[in-house]
Amino acid sequence: MQLKSFISATILAGTLYSPIAFSSAPAPTAIINNYANIALATYEDALFSAQHLQQSINTLLQNPTPVNLEQARHAWIAARVPYQQSEAFRFGNSIVDDWEGRVNAWPLDEGLIDYVDTGKYGTESDENEQYRANVIANTSLRVAGVEIDATDITPHFIAEVLHEADDIEANVASGYHAIEFLLWGQDLNGTNSGAGNRPATDFSLDNCTGGHCDRRRDYLQAATQLLITDLQEMVGNWQDDGAARQELTAKEDNAAIATILTGIGSLAYGELAGERTKLGLMLHDPEEEHDCFSDNTHWSHFYDAKGIRNVYQGEYSRIDGSVVSGPSLSDFVAAKAAVADQNMHNKLIATEAAAQAMVDAAGRGQTFDVLIGENNPQGNQIVQRFVDSLTDETQAIENIIAVLDLDNIQLAGSDSLDSPEKVME
Length: 425
Hints:
Layout: H1 2-15, H2 28-62, H3 66-86, H4 94-104, E1 140-143, E2 146-149, H5 155-162, H6 176-184, H7 213-237, H8 243-249, H9 253-283, H10 297-313, E3 315-317, E4 323-325, H11 329-336, H12 338-363, H13 368-371, H14 377-403, H15 415-418, H16 420-423
Antiparallel strand pairs: 1-2, 3-4
Helix pairs in contact: 1-12, 2-3, 2-7, 2-9, 3-6, 3-10, 4-7, 5-7, 6-7, 9-10, 9-14, 10-12, 11-12, 12-14
């Protein structure tokens, strides 16, 4: 309830926003420094919340009760809040984009990790030998035709052997979604209401359900520690001497500004509007849902959109209530083309309202997988409005690119938006 009130207040504050005209644009170096400071703060918050998640998981494993499982699930959902806001730093920064697949890759063939209901798991593919490897139940698996020892489930084993085994992207073994699957289990409800419902006894050594509870515990602990290690790496990358900050500050002014615009434009259009939203809507397929085991997709989408707004306005509200802010891309655009800046703010506000509508629908029991159902035209329209608002937002970003006379910016696209006939073939 408090979170919803905070979001509503944020939207209200956004509707009252009016950019201040600057007599001169802030220096690009000041904008980039603030952008990097926001990146650092966001990843620090993601790391802190992942460490809290680890504490909750340790409590669960010490005493695997339904209450402790529910607390671990709440900690996972809380950990998504800062991380999703960090995704606005992805596409323009190669160091972040190369790293992202280790922590947030999806969708995943969960049969690689643990038991699944094969009747609701789709058809086995000849292209993925590990489709139902179930490493928790088995101490060996075949990778590239070679038998691999899987006796010890460690962070190194998950990262170096299992994750994207055979170079198959669906073999997601690490990151938030692997942990999500272990905490919730499969969502067997299709486009009906309800998330995954794994019992707490799947982690019990005394009253084990699902089999191999000792290895399931090992996997959950190892995957969580690996997530923390990966987030620690990215925090380091945005510190003063970090690789991502150094790579960005070494760029010429226009190239650095282009990096920011590439990041927010590609996230808004190709990734969020396209791959994470429109694709599932077109196919009416809950398997294309981002947080598909927990039914948390409405919040993940909300905070992805929020991250774009953070970057453009140069301001981030930390999980401890403090605020990181400074010279922004908005300030820069407002000084050069106030109409373009105001248009961008209007689109950001509209997108946040459309995201809030999905959050509100989820509160009424219509989570994202329900909204995209084939026989739910009203729900489909709620999701489509979110897609449309992101598309409008991208057009505002493209207008900014034009008025700033920046060349060679390529925003990520999506067949679901650009070539829908390919998706339906």
